[in-house]
């Protein structure tokens, strides 16, 4: 590559630098540049984490999304550093322009991504184009701009006071890495819980624009022509105006986008410490839907069929003490409490706000039959894996695993060999474990991997599936509620310690009769599930997830 100027001999100024023209002492100026590096690095990492968090929320599979965003960004940073070498003769103007553009792109990235998601539908089938391509485009653009900062900042530091290259690099990277640390900690612990994803990105962009513009216009204005100064002022004012306007309208935008995603019937929309919870319908005869982090977890049209299929086969036998893992909505507890002989039901739910809504929301509490008002029900707020590690052995006759789909990265440990080993330990010798393992027809490999994992933990299994009467309810990561996109069935696995369990509905005296299931249909559905079996699959573990 041909440089625009020949390199200067060591210890001398490059020919384009000229004498420094600073409004402050060199030591103060150098400190201000390093402070600017600190702030810009913090903003850059917030942009990266914002893209990872939003992509994981909208698309699912957080490991894949983090890998895509971070790898593309790091690659682009290298390209940006190479490209910025040609801007070194105009380091101050170049840095100011780059920071204004970075503030605009990074600050608006979350807004643009969520808008495309909300108004174009599900991301799951759009890997090669559409919203997924937009995610890569933002990652690439932000990475290019962040990478371009480094050589320009190095030149600005050397403009103030010449020093050996190693010392300058050490100072620059120290400020950069400390800023990245602050940004990385501020995002999950301060920005996200207080401001949310959209406002966090917008405010970060505004800070980026202010600091970048102030550093160049305040410290290096002598290096800029009058025209360049005015262009930079206009650019920064425009960027700040756009970000400020978006911040003012962000609440209206969120409401409109939420209606586009969930429909016009949104009654509850809250961001808890764990997840976003949205409830639609449930009044005036409209079916209630409960979404957790964008995933439909309770569909009023088919909720009874799903929970009857999950709970009733496991309750055919001794069921004095029952453990429900997940199921904070109370619907699994409702089905358990229909069976006579139940003395205690322990519900382990990680999000207390879901339990509160299940108790207090009139439509949801009506749907779960006011299960939490029953004195036999006891709620423990904890992660299911952590709670099982401390659970006394051979305590429960029935364990119901009503957890998010195994295809979601955050849930893979809850479908691991280690987890099922802990669940097996909590069962009595003749106890039974019921597991929701995702749809069979659309994701058979995931379903049969769960079966192989259960067997690897020393459990005997009886897989079965139940077709949905209404395809609007999916317990998996598919966010679309359109009939053409939602899974057509739910897959379950009944497991036991001693011998392969028999799939049957309750036959004991007083056992409730399911409203949506029959023994004939359950047997036929089990045979249908068996026809999809995939052999030779390995067990999924915490360190080697296979979903």
From TrEMBL:
EC number(s) stated in the UniProt entry for this protein: 2.5.1.16
Pathway membership, UniProt: Amine and polyamine biosynthesis; spermidine biosynthesis; spermidine from putrescine: step 1/1
Keywords from the named record: Cell membrane, Membrane, Polyamine biosynthesis, Spermidine biosynthesis, Transferase, Transmembrane, Transmembrane helix
Name by which UniProt lists this protein: Polyamine aminopropyltransferase
Ranges of residues in domain PABS: 247-497
UniProt keyword Transmembrane helix present: yes
Membrane-protein topology: Multi-pass membrane protein
Coiled-coil stretches noted in the UniProt entry, renumbered to this chain: none
SUPFAM superfamilies assigned to the protein according to its UniProt record, in alphabetical order: MFS general substrate transporter, S-adenosyl-L-methionine-dependent methyltransferases
GO biological process, one term: spermidine biosynthetic process
Catalytic residues (UniProt): 402 (proton acceptor)
Family of the protein in this entry: Belongs to the spermidine/spermine synthase family.
GO molecular function, one term: thermospermine synthase activity
Species of the source: Streptomyces chartreusis
Region (Disordered): 1-20, 468-487
Assembly with partners or alone: Homodimer or homotetramer.
Binding locations of spermidine: 307, 329
Domain of life: Bacteria
Compartments where located: Cell membrane
Catalytic activity annotation: S-adenosyl 3-(methylsulfanyl)propylamine + putrescine = S-methyl-5'-thioadenosine + spermidine + H(+)
An example Gene Ontology CC term for this record: plasma membrane
Record-listed S-methyl-5'-thioadenosine binding positions: 275, 349, 383-384
Transmembrane segments: 31-59, 65-84, 96-121, 133-157, 169-192, 198-218, 230-250
Keyword Transferase: yes
